[in-house]
Amino acid sequence: MQHQTNYEIAEQQADPVAIDAALEGARRTPFWEDDQPRGAHFSALSGNETADLVVVGGGFAGLWTALLAKERDPGRDVVLLEAERIGWAASGRNGGFCEPSLTHGRANAKVHLPGEIETLERLGEENLEALLATLTRYGIDADVVDQGVVKIATERYQEAYLEEMAAAEPTMRLLRGEELRQEINTPAAQLGNWATADGVVLNPIKLVYGLREVCERLGVRICEDTRVTGLRRDGDGMRVSAQGGAISARRVALATNGFKALLARDRWMTVPVYDYAIVTEPLTPAQRESLGWKKRQGLTDLNNRFHYLRLITDAAGQERLLIGGYDALYHFGRKVRPEQDYSEPTFRRLVVHLGVIFPQLNGIKISHAWGGMIDTCTRFFSFFTTAHGGRVAAAAGFTGLGVAATRFAGEVMLDLLDGKDTERTRTQLVKKRPFPFPPEPIAWPAIRFTAAQMARADRSEGKRGVWLRTLDAFKLGFDS
Predict the structure, then answer these.
(1) Which of 88, 183, 280, 337 is least surrounded, with the fewest CB atoms within 10 Å of its CB?
(2) 47-141+202-270+378-431 falls under which CATH superfamily?
(3) Is the dihedral of CA 436, 64, 331, 274 positive or negative?
(4) How far apart are CA 300 and CA 406, in angstroms?
(5) Rounded to an integer, what distance in angstroms lies between the CA atom of residue 117 and that of residue 11?
């Protein structure tokens, strides 16, 4: 039997005038970008150049690849090409959850790579440790909060799952009733699970700008406003064609997220799915005190359409609250358009859902509301491609969990381009590719129907219907 979720009940009871008031004046731009100005603009590529390595894409994956390439070989001539501005897309739009998992969670790894769970968990933990060590080594201040994530049961049936998780994992701590409220004061749940080893939260744009500065310091040549238009073999190397010029390079690393792949074999492997977030105006001292939340952990719920929440400190030192998630929207034809960065119905839902989790913030105003594209693949974690006799390597498919996993991807792409046999490259995560998505007009109705069935499962106490079980059987399902 289906029942409305607590969020859906709240939506029905919400006052539209109050929602309008909360969103009045909210800027439709990523909070991070307003809070931390971009700084200097790098010149576009002009004319013909040569390089040892060209990195295409100026988000986390591209920045990490360029930085690691210079660390491995300071004499390597590295050029990074970005179609817009460094970090303007997913890397500058996400919520800043930086988790060790390379597989979107242990349960997902059990479905897709059951023989490598322990290895991949260790590699993920080592990768996050190396990421944080890099920040320390170069003095990158990304506002890191190392307190893990609290997962809450906003529906009673979810409590059994939290108890099972805690019993299986010693780093998880159950928070029941008053103990939960002492950590995070939400009446939306009676049980929480504090996953102390589930990574950190950070300021994503400060991480972007820190990596950008280090890349420049190490000698990476960065070109913005340089859209790559083609790749072809050029003697023993590759020729990268772009607006304004071309580069002849020995090797090429592709880190283009969910944008149209430069390798034809990857063009059916991802779809762009849009995620949205809102940020409150600065909390008053009374509002901040009412939340508890002194350790400032990340916070998520357990629905298929899940939320992520966190406290953030703005450039003026004031605290705000971010909530994102729930809707994940796919648009027909794999289209990536600027207008899809905004979904007014989603922004309104997030206002209501924030009130469910923290009713003590009733009446708070929203300062920013925005969205961004996630490069989703059918196994929900990254895959890798090599082409042109090992001269080109690509990584994509991070599915919203790329803040840390992109660093691992940079290591893998460099291993592949350097011809190195490493523990990373021997994993099935690297060797095995996911199923491609179908072409249109099949993809759009299939994805929309799947989203509807996941919502139905939330209303059915997590019970997955025939469609979702069929996808599970073909290893195409995902239980968030």
Answers:
(1) 337
(2) FAD/NAD(P)-binding domain (3.50.50.60)
(3) positive
(4) 22
(5) 39
